UniProtKB/TrEMBL annotation:
This is Histidinol-phosphate aminotransferase. Its cofactor is pyridoxal 5'-phosphate. It comes from Faecalicoccus acidiformans. Signal peptide: none annotated. Homodimer. It holds the Pfam family Aminotran_1_2. Keywords: Amino-acid biosynthesis, Aminotransferase, Histidine biosynthesis, Pyridoxal phosphate, Transferase. It is an enzyme of class 2 (transferase).
Length: 338
Protein backbone atom coordinates (compact mmCIF):
# COMPACT_ATOMS: atom_id res chain seq x y z
CA UNK A 1 0.00 0.00 0.00
CA UNK A 2 1.30 3.47 -0.89
CA UNK A 3 0.41 5.86 1.92
CA UNK A 4 -0.02 9.54 1.04
CA UNK A 5 1.79 11.84 3.50
CA UNK A 6 0.15 15.16 4.35
CA UNK A 7 2.51 17.98 5.32
CA UNK A 8 1.35 20.18 8.20
CA UNK A 9 1.71 23.95 8.07
CA UNK A 10 4.58 26.08 9.35
CA UNK A 11 3.87 28.04 12.53
CA UNK A 12 6.48 30.78 12.13
CA UNK A 13 6.28 34.27 10.64
CA UNK A 14 3.12 36.09 9.60
CA UNK A 15 0.87 33.08 9.07
CA UNK A 16 -0.95 33.31 5.76
CA UNK A 17 -0.56 29.65 4.83
CA UNK A 18 -3.41 27.73 6.47
CA UNK A 19 -6.54 29.79 5.64
CA UNK A 20 -7.23 30.55 9.29
CA UNK A 21 -9.22 33.48 10.63
CA UNK A 22 -6.58 36.17 11.33
CA UNK A 23 -8.28 37.34 14.53
CA UNK A 24 -8.48 35.56 17.87
CA UNK A 25 -11.85 35.30 19.59
CA UNK A 26 -13.26 38.52 21.05
CA UNK A 27 -12.46 39.12 24.73
CA UNK A 28 -16.13 38.79 25.70
CA UNK A 29 -16.37 35.29 24.20
CA UNK A 30 -13.07 34.22 25.71
CA UNK A 31 -14.28 35.31 29.14
CA UNK A 32 -17.52 33.38 28.68
CA UNK A 33 -15.47 30.31 27.79
CA UNK A 34 -13.34 30.72 30.92
CA UNK A 35 -16.44 30.99 33.08
CA UNK A 36 -17.93 27.88 31.44
CA UNK A 37 -14.93 25.73 32.36
CA UNK A 38 -16.23 25.54 35.92
CA UNK A 39 -19.33 23.69 34.66
CA UNK A 40 -17.39 20.87 32.97
CA UNK A 41 -17.02 17.49 34.64
CA UNK A 42 -13.47 16.70 33.58
CA UNK A 43 -13.68 13.20 35.04
CA UNK A 44 -16.61 12.23 32.82
CA UNK A 45 -16.81 11.32 29.15
CA UNK A 46 -18.65 13.81 26.93
CA UNK A 47 -22.35 13.50 26.23
CA UNK A 48 -22.03 11.63 22.94
CA UNK A 49 -24.91 13.19 21.02
CA UNK A 50 -23.40 16.67 21.56
CA UNK A 51 -26.92 17.98 21.69
CA UNK A 52 -26.03 21.50 22.86
CA UNK A 53 -23.40 21.88 20.12
CA UNK A 54 -25.58 20.44 17.35
CA UNK A 55 -28.60 22.49 18.41
CA UNK A 56 -26.45 25.62 18.30
CA UNK A 57 -25.26 24.77 14.79
CA UNK A 58 -28.80 23.91 13.76
CA UNK A 59 -29.78 27.50 14.48
CA UNK A 60 -27.06 28.70 12.09
CA UNK A 61 -27.68 26.38 9.14
CA UNK A 62 -31.44 25.84 9.59
CA UNK A 63 -31.08 22.06 9.41
CA UNK A 64 -32.55 19.87 12.20
CA UNK A 65 -30.01 18.83 14.82
CA UNK A 66 -30.91 15.19 14.13
CA UNK A 67 -29.30 15.62 10.69
CA UNK A 68 -26.05 16.97 12.15
CA UNK A 69 -23.12 14.92 13.42
CA UNK A 70 -20.33 16.67 15.36
CA UNK A 71 -16.73 15.57 15.05
CA UNK A 72 -13.09 16.44 15.60
CA UNK A 73 -12.86 18.83 12.67
CA UNK A 74 -14.40 18.20 9.28
CA UNK A 75 -11.29 16.13 8.50
CA UNK A 76 -12.58 13.40 10.79
CA UNK A 77 -15.87 13.27 8.92
CA UNK A 78 -14.09 13.07 5.57
CA UNK A 79 -12.05 10.15 6.84
CA UNK A 80 -15.18 8.57 8.30
CA UNK A 81 -17.07 8.77 5.00
CA UNK A 82 -14.12 7.46 3.01
CA UNK A 83 -13.70 4.60 5.47
CA UNK A 84 -17.42 3.81 5.30
CA UNK A 85 -17.87 3.84 1.54
CA UNK A 86 -14.42 2.99 0.19
CA UNK A 87 -11.71 0.37 0.60
CA UNK A 88 -9.52 -1.88 -1.48
CA UNK A 89 -10.88 -2.21 -5.01
CA UNK A 90 -13.01 0.93 -4.73
CA UNK A 91 -12.23 4.36 -6.12
CA UNK A 92 -12.55 7.96 -5.02
CA UNK A 93 -13.11 10.62 -7.67
CA UNK A 94 -11.83 14.07 -6.75
CA UNK A 95 -10.14 16.99 -8.51
CA UNK A 96 -6.50 17.28 -9.52
CA UNK A 97 -6.36 20.43 -7.41
CA UNK A 98 -8.09 19.92 -4.07
CA UNK A 99 -7.51 19.33 -0.35
CA UNK A 100 -4.64 16.89 0.18
CA UNK A 101 -6.32 15.09 3.06
CA UNK A 102 -8.63 13.37 0.57
CA UNK A 103 -5.61 11.51 -0.78
CA UNK A 104 -4.40 10.80 2.75
CA UNK A 105 -7.62 9.12 3.87
CA UNK A 106 -8.23 7.27 0.60
CA UNK A 107 -4.72 5.81 0.65
CA UNK A 108 -5.16 4.91 4.33
CA UNK A 109 -8.05 2.65 3.33
CA UNK A 110 -6.20 1.33 0.27
CA UNK A 111 -8.73 2.92 -2.06
CA UNK A 112 -7.90 4.08 -5.57
CA UNK A 113 -7.84 7.80 -6.33
CA UNK A 114 -9.05 9.19 -9.65
CA UNK A 115 -8.30 12.85 -10.39
CA UNK A 116 -10.33 14.98 -12.75
CA UNK A 117 -7.87 17.47 -14.27
CA UNK A 118 -8.65 21.12 -13.58
CA UNK A 119 -6.95 24.34 -14.64
CA UNK A 120 -6.44 26.52 -11.53
CA UNK A 121 -7.30 29.67 -13.46
CA UNK A 122 -10.37 28.41 -15.31
CA UNK A 123 -13.86 27.51 -14.18
CA UNK A 124 -14.52 23.79 -14.11
CA UNK A 125 -16.54 22.45 -17.03
CA UNK A 126 -19.32 20.64 -15.16
CA UNK A 127 -20.63 18.86 -18.27
CA UNK A 128 -17.18 17.45 -18.96
CA UNK A 129 -16.78 16.49 -15.30
CA UNK A 130 -20.08 14.58 -15.40
CA UNK A 131 -19.01 12.70 -18.54
CA UNK A 132 -15.67 11.88 -16.88
CA UNK A 133 -17.46 10.71 -13.73
CA UNK A 134 -19.82 8.44 -15.64
CA UNK A 135 -16.95 6.95 -17.63
CA UNK A 136 -14.89 6.27 -14.49
CA UNK A 137 -17.86 4.95 -12.42
CA UNK A 138 -16.32 5.82 -9.01
CA UNK A 139 -17.56 4.64 -5.60
CA UNK A 140 -17.49 8.15 -4.13
CA UNK A 141 -17.21 11.71 -5.46
CA UNK A 142 -15.58 14.28 -3.17
CA UNK A 143 -14.61 17.90 -3.78
CA UNK A 144 -14.32 21.15 -1.85
CA UNK A 145 -16.65 24.03 -2.69
CA UNK A 146 -15.33 26.72 -2.69
CA UNK A 147 -12.34 24.84 -4.00
CA UNK A 148 -9.06 24.76 -2.11
CA UNK A 149 -6.68 26.03 -3.51
CA UNK A 150 -8.27 27.72 -6.55
CA UNK A 151 -11.18 29.53 -4.88
CA UNK A 152 -13.48 28.34 -7.69
CA UNK A 153 -17.13 27.89 -6.78
CA UNK A 154 -19.85 25.64 -8.17
CA UNK A 155 -23.37 26.99 -7.84
CA UNK A 156 -26.35 24.97 -6.62
CA UNK A 157 -27.57 24.12 -10.10
CA UNK A 158 -24.17 22.66 -10.98
CA UNK A 159 -23.99 20.59 -7.80
CA UNK A 160 -27.55 19.40 -8.41
CA UNK A 161 -26.53 18.21 -11.88
CA UNK A 162 -23.56 16.32 -10.49
CA UNK A 163 -25.74 14.65 -7.86
CA UNK A 164 -28.40 13.74 -10.40
CA UNK A 165 -25.80 12.12 -12.66
CA UNK A 166 -23.91 10.29 -9.89
CA UNK A 167 -24.64 6.69 -8.89
CA UNK A 168 -22.57 6.91 -5.70
CA UNK A 169 -22.24 9.14 -2.61
CA UNK A 170 -21.37 12.76 -3.43
CA UNK A 171 -19.53 14.60 -0.65
CA UNK A 172 -19.20 18.38 -0.77
CA UNK A 173 -16.58 19.84 1.58
CA UNK A 174 -17.83 23.32 2.50
CA UNK A 175 -14.95 24.42 4.71
CA UNK A 176 -15.02 27.90 3.11
CA UNK A 177 -18.71 28.30 2.36
CA UNK A 178 -19.16 31.32 4.65
CA UNK A 179 -17.08 33.33 2.15
CA UNK A 180 -19.34 32.40 -0.80
CA UNK A 181 -23.08 32.23 -1.46
CA UNK A 182 -25.29 29.18 -1.89
CA UNK A 183 -24.68 26.13 0.26
CA UNK A 184 -25.37 22.58 -0.92
CA UNK A 185 -27.29 22.09 2.34
CA UNK A 186 -30.37 23.32 0.51
CA UNK A 187 -30.12 20.23 -1.73
CA UNK A 188 -30.16 17.61 1.02
CA UNK A 189 -33.87 16.95 0.68
CA UNK A 190 -33.54 16.51 -3.09
CA UNK A 191 -30.33 14.47 -3.31
CA UNK A 192 -30.51 11.32 -1.21
CA UNK A 193 -26.82 10.47 -1.71
CA UNK A 194 -25.45 13.94 -0.90
CA UNK A 195 -23.27 14.56 2.17
CA UNK A 196 -21.92 17.96 3.27
CA UNK A 197 -19.06 18.63 5.67
CA UNK A 198 -18.56 21.92 7.51
CA UNK A 199 -15.98 23.32 9.95
CA UNK A 200 -15.61 26.02 12.58
CA UNK A 201 -11.88 26.31 11.83
CA UNK A 202 -12.11 29.02 9.17
CA UNK A 203 -14.81 31.68 9.44
CA UNK A 204 -15.42 31.11 13.16
CA UNK A 205 -11.77 31.20 14.19
CA UNK A 206 -11.65 27.82 15.96
CA UNK A 207 -8.82 26.08 14.11
CA UNK A 208 -7.17 25.38 17.46
CA UNK A 209 -10.31 23.74 18.87
CA UNK A 210 -11.07 21.29 16.03
CA UNK A 211 -14.82 21.11 15.49
CA UNK A 212 -16.52 19.99 12.31
CA UNK A 213 -19.95 18.79 11.23
CA UNK A 214 -21.36 16.22 8.85
CA UNK A 215 -24.84 16.84 7.45
CA UNK A 216 -27.06 14.71 5.23
CA UNK A 217 -30.64 13.49 4.95
CA UNK A 218 -32.33 12.05 8.02
CA UNK A 219 -32.20 8.53 6.59
CA UNK A 220 -28.48 8.80 5.86
CA UNK A 221 -27.69 10.18 9.30
CA UNK A 222 -29.72 7.45 11.01
CA UNK A 223 -27.62 4.89 9.16
CA UNK A 224 -24.26 6.59 9.79
CA UNK A 225 -24.60 7.69 13.41
CA UNK A 226 -24.14 4.19 14.95
CA UNK A 227 -20.93 3.75 12.94
CA UNK A 228 -19.29 7.00 14.07
CA UNK A 229 -16.50 6.87 16.64
CA UNK A 230 -17.90 7.76 20.10
CA UNK A 231 -16.74 10.74 22.14
CA UNK A 232 -15.17 12.31 19.04
CA UNK A 233 -15.25 15.84 20.49
CA UNK A 234 -13.85 16.53 23.95
CA UNK A 235 -16.04 18.33 26.46
CA UNK A 236 -14.04 21.56 26.38
CA UNK A 237 -14.16 21.86 22.59
CA UNK A 238 -17.88 21.08 22.55
CA UNK A 239 -18.58 23.80 25.09
CA UNK A 240 -16.39 26.33 23.25
CA UNK A 241 -18.14 25.55 19.97
CA UNK A 242 -21.59 26.01 21.49
CA UNK A 243 -20.60 29.35 23.02
CA UNK A 244 -19.06 30.66 19.79
CA UNK A 245 -22.08 29.65 17.74
CA UNK A 246 -24.33 31.47 20.19
CA UNK A 247 -22.48 34.63 19.14
CA UNK A 248 -22.25 33.82 15.43
CA UNK A 249 -23.45 37.30 14.48
CA UNK A 250 -20.21 38.74 15.88
CA UNK A 251 -18.30 37.03 13.06
CA UNK A 252 -20.41 38.51 10.26
CA UNK A 253 -18.36 41.71 10.14
CA UNK A 254 -15.09 39.76 10.10
CA UNK A 255 -16.34 37.62 7.21
CA UNK A 256 -17.42 40.68 5.22
CA UNK A 257 -14.08 42.40 5.84
CA UNK A 258 -12.19 39.31 4.67
CA UNK A 259 -14.30 39.18 1.49
CA UNK A 260 -13.68 42.87 0.77
CA UNK A 261 -9.94 42.52 1.33
CA UNK A 262 -9.92 39.43 -0.90
CA UNK A 263 -11.71 41.20 -3.73
CA UNK A 264 -9.32 44.16 -3.55
CA UNK A 265 -6.45 41.83 -4.38
CA UNK A 266 -8.24 40.72 -7.55
CA UNK A 267 -8.41 44.35 -8.67
CA UNK A 268 -4.65 44.89 -8.49
CA UNK A 269 -3.14 45.70 -11.88
CA UNK A 270 0.03 43.61 -12.12
CA UNK A 271 2.17 42.63 -15.10
CA UNK A 272 4.25 39.79 -13.63
CA UNK A 273 1.53 38.12 -11.56
CA UNK A 274 -1.98 36.87 -12.10
CA UNK A 275 -4.37 36.80 -9.13
CA UNK A 276 -7.29 34.40 -9.34
CA UNK A 277 -10.68 35.80 -8.25
CA UNK A 278 -11.76 33.72 -5.28
CA UNK A 279 -14.88 32.78 -3.34
CA UNK A 280 -12.89 31.68 -0.28
CA UNK A 281 -10.68 33.42 2.29
CA UNK A 282 -7.53 33.12 0.20
CA UNK A 283 -6.16 34.02 -3.21
CA UNK A 284 -4.09 32.05 -5.73
CA UNK A 285 -1.19 33.94 -7.32
CA UNK A 286 0.50 32.73 -10.50
CA UNK A 287 3.78 33.92 -11.99
CA UNK A 288 6.54 32.36 -14.13
CA UNK A 289 8.96 33.69 -11.50
CA UNK A 290 7.28 31.88 -8.61
CA UNK A 291 10.52 31.16 -6.74
CA UNK A 292 11.47 34.83 -6.74
CA UNK A 293 8.02 35.80 -5.50
CA UNK A 294 7.92 33.26 -2.68
CA UNK A 295 11.41 34.34 -1.66
CA UNK A 296 10.21 37.94 -1.51
CA UNK A 297 7.35 36.87 0.74
CA UNK A 298 9.79 35.08 3.05
CA UNK A 299 12.12 38.09 3.21
CA UNK A 300 9.18 40.15 4.43
CA UNK A 301 8.26 37.64 7.14
CA UNK A 302 5.26 36.19 5.32
CA UNK A 303 4.54 32.47 5.49
CA UNK A 304 2.40 31.42 2.53
CA UNK A 305 1.40 28.11 0.93
CA UNK A 306 3.82 26.94 -1.73
CA UNK A 307 3.23 24.10 -4.20
CA UNK A 308 6.31 22.16 -5.25
CA UNK A 309 6.84 22.23 -8.99
CA UNK A 310 3.94 24.64 -9.61
CA UNK A 311 4.01 28.24 -10.81
CA UNK A 312 1.50 29.48 -8.24
CA UNK A 313 1.15 29.96 -4.48
CA UNK A 314 -1.79 30.47 -2.14
CA UNK A 315 -2.07 33.38 0.28
CA UNK A 316 -4.62 33.57 3.10
CA UNK A 317 -6.44 36.86 3.57
CA UNK A 318 -5.12 38.28 6.84
CA UNK A 319 -5.63 41.45 8.80
CA UNK A 320 -5.59 44.74 6.84
CA UNK A 321 -2.03 45.32 8.07
CA UNK A 322 -0.90 41.87 6.92
CA UNK A 323 -2.67 42.28 3.60
CA UNK A 324 -0.89 45.58 3.03
CA UNK A 325 2.47 43.83 3.42
CA UNK A 326 1.38 41.29 0.81
CA UNK A 327 0.32 44.07 -1.56
CA UNK A 328 3.58 45.94 -1.04
CA UNK A 329 5.55 42.78 -1.87
CA UNK A 330 3.47 42.18 -5.01
CA UNK A 331 3.80 45.76 -6.22
CA UNK A 332 7.54 45.80 -5.54
CA UNK A 333 7.94 42.44 -7.26
CA UNK A 334 5.97 43.69 -10.25
CA UNK A 335 8.38 46.61 -10.72
CA UNK A 336 11.48 44.41 -10.80
CA UNK A 337 13.12 43.62 -14.10
CA UNK A 338 11.89 40.38 -15.59
Amino acid sequence: MSQFVYETHSQSGILLNANENPWNLPDSIRQEIKDALDTIAFNRYPEDSYQELCEAYSQIVHIPASQILAGNGSDQHLGFLIGTFLGKGKNLLTLSLDFGMYDYYASSYDAGIIKYPVDPFSKMDVDDFIHFMQDQDPDMVLFSNPNNPTGNFLDLAEIQRICDAASCPVVVDEAYIEFAQGSALSLLDRCDHLYVTRTLSKAYGLAGVRIGFLLSSQANMDALRPLHVPYAVNSISAKIGAIVLKHADLFDEQIENIKKERDRFAMLSLQRCRIKPSQANFILIQTPAIQALTQAFKENGLTIREYKGKDYCRVTIGTPEENQIVKDVLISFDKEEQ
